[in-house]
Amino acid sequence: xxxxxxxxxxxxxxxxxxxxxxxxxxxxxxxxxxxxxxxxxxxxxxxxxxxxxxxxxxxxxxxxxxxxxxxxxxxxxxxxxxxxxxxxxxxxxxxxxxxxxxxxxxxxxxxxxxxxxxxxxxxxxxxxxxxxxxxxxxxxxxxxxxxxxxxxxxxxxxxxxxxxxxxxxxxxxxxxxxxxxxxxxxxxxxxxxxxxxxxxxxxxxxxxxxxxxxxxxxxxxxxxxxxxxxxxxxxxxxxxxxxxxxxxxxxxxxxxxxxxxxxxxxxxxxxxxxxxxxxxxxxxxxxxxxxxxxxxxxxxxxxxxxx
Length: 307
Hints:
The protein is mainly α.
């Protein structure tokens, strides 16, 4: 509940990062660069025409180019686009078999491109083979887009859950569902941690008089940690807030031992333990260090001011 007051509005405001590929490190990492384009593509398989119409009613998808445009592209960039059979014949030096196949096609007059543009029918064979690799549902279509809004993704998820002819695939849908799940996990972990802390506090002090200053100190810690995150990182990762629930346990200890002379030493050793994370190449570890250290410093100051 404590984190729900802070984390849930942030999550729903769509300003937290949920990109798993961002966890591998900096912008120069090969995996992040290779997957950046694929990670944003959302695919919807519709097995019926009604499913296609329903999906297009709630979201905008990329239109497939007309066939003449596709053929024009392959006519200009045909070098190296070879069917497996043609590739094997060329590698084996079977030019005679290729020429005999060309003559048969010339007599048949079957070709997707003019003879001058594809004299050996290499592009024609490649396109035919390429087409055979894709699924051919009896009805419906495969829709895809790399620019769906959060509202469109939510609408498609609800549509897929209510129909048996619409199936979703792609990181944007997994991300949306992960965010929803993260909200529940943050709320649950925060509620359990806070309830346990209050129970232990009542067992130690015999009353709930400690509760208000403890909750205020924890709220100040989460507020300070969150503010520092958004100050230093444009889009903090949602995992930072999930792991950040550990701040409750650390902060409660500071509240319980507020009059201890060793509290400053405890803060110093904790900051020292988290300091190596500032130099990690994994972004979420940097963010965890910023969130925890900033939150603990704020809690420490609240406890000292109260004492």
